[in-house]
Design a protein that fits this description.
By secondary structure, this protein is of the alpha/beta class. It folds into 5 domains: about 150 residues, no CATH class; about 140 residues, 3-Layer(aba) Sandwich (Rossmann fold); about 70 residues; about 170 residues, P-loop containing nucleotide triphosphate hydrolases (Rossmann fold), CATH 3.40.50; about 80 residues, Helicase, Ruva Protein, domain 3. Helices cover about 50% and strands about 10% of the residues. It contains 30 helices and 16 strands. The strands form 4 sheets. It has a 6-stranded mixed β-sheet with strand order 3-5-6-7-4-8. β5, α11 and β6 form a beta-alpha-beta unit.
């Protein structure tokens, strides 16, 4: 129940407090008061009218009823409030103590002066202590120590029901959404129906678990469900839950009290269960009670009843409908095809999608540039999760930068066409209805370092306007059982949102000839490999493994890859083309002999490094790039590769 409030409620409540304080003063100093004799008749009539208006809905009566206070506990709370609000009552307490320097409430004074006293009123488990309404100055003893009313409760008694400032850094109001995806609307209806059904036992409602990767939708569902019960919804991020048990217990108690004062439900958001769903979070969920929701990608088992609902990010159909509703007919007429492509490619959450649509409406663009802006914004918005897990590679390479045999170029163009036409084939032509197995673009790029594997991935990314991320498998693989799969799951889950091209470097760190299981390490390595291949096969984007030595990979694994591209060591003609591309036309040159340079047996990566180093050498000496600079740079590259240059390779350079 929400705390009472009416147009004239505050003034009537304050008038009633005056009467209550007068009654307490009469009890503390009976020799000076006879009932209400100390108050004039006009005031008594006014206060009587206030009592008639309020009935049992004054702040003190609401507190007493809600927190099950006895009449003595009610008066004790009023006494503690009165010494803060009524100077006369403070003086009466000093008189009762026989010490003008003690103008406050004490338990001993209350036991002596108030009606129906009982010692249990200040036991550790009494409502006043349990709900942190009153604290005791224990240095002076329970009977003689000063009693202090909690500031939040004091303001409430005065008619001010503002949120507790001690929780303001932990809690925030839930943020609803204007639009709901169809699946989320159905989920909301199911949650509301569940919460409207009486639970057994009635005082222990089950925890509502909103499980899935659209946390913003979970927050919206919780907010709507709470509103259906007449409750506000407050959000607590699991990462803000105090790590220490005593701090956590205080937070729990303050929240349980606040939920009653404000009429609120709680939503606990667990963004990363691997790091924030620890014992402290689970303990709080097990003990919090009341109407409580939790939104998380997944949740470990709890010791209390739960009801689980899915709230995954909208599927392609729901995303298209959300885009249409959020943008409106005019914008959809201009960018409808672009919206269809974006909806198919980017798994954007409900809030982010509506924020992007709102931004597009504000710009007012309805031409071709709006479609380009839509794709770019979706790309930027959806990459945030992956940015924290992998290295994004930016580049401007295009097909003209690739120097490869025709067979390899043909396979790369096939990969590009598969990605470009995925929506048509998988969704429109119905191939996706047969299951996701085998629809992924798991690929292997094999070849020596510098032969163009990463460059080819850059070309594909730029051609298709996608992000490219490098994941170092040697860093992902963990010696701890299960950690490798956990690391890979995080990467793929984040990548599913943006459909980025994933480039897994150093595949040899995980893949190898391990089909013969000799010990537990081999068995777990096979499990890790199988998990990676499974995620690559089901990934809706392009996932590329790179290796320097294809023969080191077991054929049982390579058979599961859709494309395999062997990047050969460049021959003379290819090296000649690479050298001509390596030095920009704007760079000053002096008598370069590309036919002689092409005799140097190095990869395209080395050619670029040599050309770049030579350019710096020439610039530093104030000269145009010449063969002597290239020779110097080539020797440095050879030393790095621990392969000295032969006379046949460099004869005639200088």
């Amino acid at each position: 129940m929400n705390a009472p409030l009416a147009p004239d409620w505050i003034s009537a409540n304050q008038q009633l407090l005056v009467l209550e304080f007068a009654r307490l003063k009469a009890l503390l100093r009976p020799e000076e008061h006879d009932g209400h004799a100390g108050i004039d008749a006009s005031t008594v009539r006014t206060l009587g009218a206030a009592r008639q208006y309020l009935g049992d809905d004054s702040a003190i009566d609401w507190l007493a009823r809600t927190f099950e206070l006895s009449s003595f506990e009610r008066d004790l709370l009023l006494l503690c409030a009165g010494v803060e609000m009524d100077a006369g009552l403070a003086r009466a307490c000093a008189h009762g103590h026989g010490d003008e320097n003690r103008p406050w409430a004490s338990f001993g004074l209350a036991l002596a002066a108030l009606q129906s006293p009982h010692w249990s009123a200040l036991s550790p488990h009494s409502p006043l202590r349990h709900w942190l309404m009153i604290t005791v100055d224990n240095d002076a003893g329970l009977s003689t120590g000063r009693l202090r009313i909690d500031e939040r409760i004091l303001h409430f008694l005065a008619g001010l029901n503002d949120p507790d400032m001690r929780l303001s850094h932990l809690l925030r109001p839930a943020a609803g959404l204007t639009l709901q995806a169809g699946a989320h609307a159905a989920c909301t209806e199911a949650v509301v129906a569940t919460l409207s059904t009486p639970c057994t036992p009635p005082e222990v409602p089950p925890l509502t678990v909103l499980e899935g990767d659209d946390i913003s939708a979970g927050e919206d569902i919780a907010n709507r469900a709470a509103a259906s019960l007449g409750l506000r919804c407050q959000v607590l991020q699991a990462k803000h839950i105090p790590p220490h048990a005593d701090e956590r217990a205080r937070l729990l108690r303050l929240w349980q009290r606040e939920s009653r004062l404000l009429g609120s439900a709680l939503l606990v958001v667990i963004d990363d269960p691997d790091t924030t769903a620890g014992d402290g979070t689970l303990e709080l969920l097990n003990r919090v009670g009341g109407i409580t929701f939790v939104a998380a990608p997944f949740l470990p088992p709890l010791d209390i009843p739960t009801r689980i609902f899915r709230m995954d990010k909208p599927d392609c159909s729901d995303r298209q409908q959300l885009w249409a509703s959020a943008l409106g007919p005019a914008a959809m007429h201009a960018v409808g095809d672009d919206v269809a492509q974006a909806a198919s490619h980017f798994r954007i959450g409900s809030r982010a999608l509506q924020d992007i649509a709102r931004g597009m409406q504000q710009t007012g663009r309805k031409d071709a540039s709006a479609g380009i802006a839509l794709w770019r914004t979706c790309r930027e918005q959806s990459r945030r999760g992956l940015d924290a897990l992998a290295q994004r590679i930016s580049g401007t390479a295009d097909w003209g930068d690739l120097v490869l045999p025709e067979a390899q170029l043909s396979i790369l163009h096939q990969i590009a066409s598969h990605l470009r036409q995925r929506q048509t084939v998988i969704e429109h032509w119905g191939f996706g209805a047969q299951g996701s197995r085998g629809l992924g673009l798991a690929s292997l790029f094999a070849g020596e370092s510098g032969t163009g594997k990463t460059l080819a991935a850059e070309v594909l990314a730029n051609t298709l306007q996608l992000d490219l991320y490098r994941i170092d498998l040697s860093a992902v693989v963990s010696k701890y059982i299960g950690e490798t799969e956990k690391n890979l799951r995080k990467v793929f889950d984040a990548a599913e949102d943006c459909g980025a091209i994933l480039l897994f470097d150093e595949a040899d760190a995980l893949f190898g000839k391990r089909t013969e299981v000799k010990d537990s390490h081999d068995r777990y390595a096979n499990i890790e490999v199988s998990y990676l291949l499974q995620r690559m096969e089901s990934y809706h984007g392009l996932a590329i493994l790179t290796t320097n030595l294809k023969s080191s990979l077991d054929s049982a694994f390579t058979r599961r890859l859709r494309f395999i591209v062997q990047f050969p060591f460049p021959d003379y003609d290819q090296r000649l083309a690479l050298w001509k591309r390596a030095i920009p036309g704007a760079a000053p040159t002096a008598d370069l002999d590309f036919s002689r340079l092409a005799r140097l047996s190095v990869t395209g990566g080395s050619i670029r490094n040599i050309a770049l180093t030579a350019a710096f050498l020439a610039a530093d000496s104030g000269e145009a790039i010449g063969m002597k600079h290239l020779l110097h740079a080539a020797h440095g590259d050879a030393a790095k590769r621990e392969r000295p240059l032969t006379d046949a390779e460099t004869r005639g350079w200088t």
